[in-house]
Amino acid sequence: MTDTNLPTFDGRAFINGDRVAAISGQTFDCISPVDGRVLTAVARSGEADVNAAVAAARAAFEDRRWSGMAPAARKRVMIKFADLVAAAGDELALTEALDMGKPVKYAKGVDVNAAANCIRWYGEAVDKIYDEIAPTADTALALITRQPVGVVGVIVPWNYPMIMAAWKIAPALAAGNSVVLKPSEKSPLTALRLAELALQAGIPAGVFNVVPGFGPEAGSPLALHMDVDCIAFTGSTPVGKKIHMMAGQSNLKRAWTELGGKSPNIVFADCPDLDRSVEAAVGSIFFNQGESCNAPSRLFVEESIKDAFLEKALKLVPGYQPGNPLDKNTVMGAIVDQVQLDNVMRYIGLGQSEGAKLLAGGALASPVAGGCYVQPTIFDGVKPEMTIAREEIFGPVLSVLSFSDAADVVKQANASVYGLQAAVWTRDINKAHGVARALRAGTVHVNSYDEDDITVPFGGFKQSGVGRDKSLHAFDKYTETKTTWIRI
Ligand code: NAD
Fold first, then answer.
1. Largest CB tally within 10 Å, which of 206, 316, 423, 471?
2. 370 DSSP 8-state letter
3. pLDDT category of residue 441 using cuts at 50, 70 and 90
């Protein structure tokens, strides 16, 4: 790709329907992990910018052009918004690939599609939800209605910038709220374009604002803001804990968190199809360079089939060697930045020094000079107490453990602070039910890993977070329940 083929990037914030520089005038470089080039200068938002965005969001909420719009009318605008996102698919996908390092084919086929679909789905849903009347005495009516919470602050990570934003802004906007979104400083560009497309679709100025910047400088003022009614966060568990504290120490805003994971993928010897289990185990850990909250990073294989399983797995690894994300055939791209690449390499070093057996990868790769790439990596002989079995690596590193029976593996799988996702592979329906029920995780797959649909809730048990994204359940986050008694 030559520079002349690149889209032009505008890194300014989006407040009250306009592109604006940070009030301080400060910017930071948006660096592509593909080859280290600077894509653009991005507004370095701070407290003053967050205040301006929240004020715009509040004013837009109070003027009721959006919050008071009939749901059927809001639906039409949301659907137009989704159509515009889909129509800008090539540009958004290229931007995401350059900004975040994911292969352009997945940026288009997965990220753009999922974001557009999510926006459309919540738009279509919003005029099909009825309120309730409580079964009270004849002398009174008690109406139970849903109302938007008001101004919703949204903070998202860098791994699926558009999807993570869409999972929150779509239900929040469809429910009639105003939003201030802070994208990750590592991948801010597509969020800014989403706000432009929302305005173009007819979402009034001020309803959807974006303040790019760093967590402590732009995220914290949003989480602490006294005029933000709800903060919806996706990111790491340590920062998620801070978000709950900031919500509590400010105005007790509703706080929803989607956090980290160390998901167990459990393969019994009686799995229905060994090849399919192997493909899912390998494909899912290396998808998005392993930078997925729900990546199956702990693979438990029953001792009796472990050798056969790993032999097949190793044959698949060459197919996941990193390539140029802009090449349409690439399936594994760049790690988001040098900091994260160093982090992944540190974990690989810890795996080796703590005694795990390196079966594949373990080294840097360089399909494009100046970029951030690592080989797909598999460790065998991982013990539950090792760092690579306990901590979220967020890179293409698979830790393989073994087990003797169902009770043993449930105990090992649940021995984690996380509880986001899990899978169990077996032909035995009783065992599948028993293990799925015993696993402490928000999502459990049986004989698959990556079933996905906007219609199902997604979120974590334990320190993987509080609340659920996706499905109609997400509206619970962005609406307040009101009881209105009417004497008759
Ligand atoms: P992170 O927690 O470092 O950052 C997430 C966001 O929070 C970013 O926008 C960042 O700028 C902001 N932030 C950082 N410090 C802050 C502070 N003090 N106050 C307010 N905001 C702050 O996470 P990350 O590295 O961007 O993303 C990776 C993490 O996200 C992983 O742990 C991953 O599992 C998790 N994740 C979870 C889900 C899920 O649905 N459960 C989905 C995707 C990613």
1. 423
2. T
3. very high
- CA–centroid distance, residue 483 to ligand 1 (Å): 35
The length of the chain is: 488
User: Which tens digit of pLDDT belongs to each residue from 136-162?
Assistant: 999 999 999 999 999 999 999 999 999
User: Are the C-beta atoms of residues 336 and 342 closer than 8 Å to each other?
Assistant: no
Element (H, E) at 233: strand 230-234
Enumerate domains of the chain plus CATH numbers. Answer: 13-259+465-481 (3.40.605.10), 264-446 (3.40.309.10)
Cα 372 to ligand 1 centroid, rounded to whole Å: 20
pLDDT for residue 3: 58
pLDDT band at 272 (very low <50, low <70, confident <90, very high): very high
- The atom of ligand 1 lying closest to the CA of 222 is 20
Examine the pLDDT at 7 and tell me if it is beyond 90.
no
Least confident of 1-15, 326-340, 468-482: 1-15
d(C-alpha 401, C-alpha 133), whole Å:
53
The amino acid present at 465, given as its one-letter code, is G
d(CA 86, CA 105): 14
- In sequence order, which residues have a C-beta less than 8 Å from that of residue 146 and are 6 or more positions away? 129, 131, 175, 475, 479, 480, 481, 482
CA 169, distance to chain mean position in Å, is: 12
Residue 1 has pLDDT above 60, yes or no: no
| Torsion angle, alpha carbons of 297, 298, 302, 304, to 10 | 70
Atom of ligand 1 nearest to the CA of 465: 41
- Residue 35 has phi, psi (to 5 degrees) of -150, 10
Q: How far is the CA of 404 from the centre of ligand 1 (A)?
A: 36
Q: Which of 62, 467, 55 is nearest to 228 (CA)?
A: 55
258 in active site = yes
Cα separation, 274 vs 313, in Å, equals 10
Quote the pLDDT of residue 256: 98
Q: Is 392 a catalytic residue?
A: no
235 CA to middle of ligand 1, Å? 2
Average model confidence (pLDDT) for the chain? 97
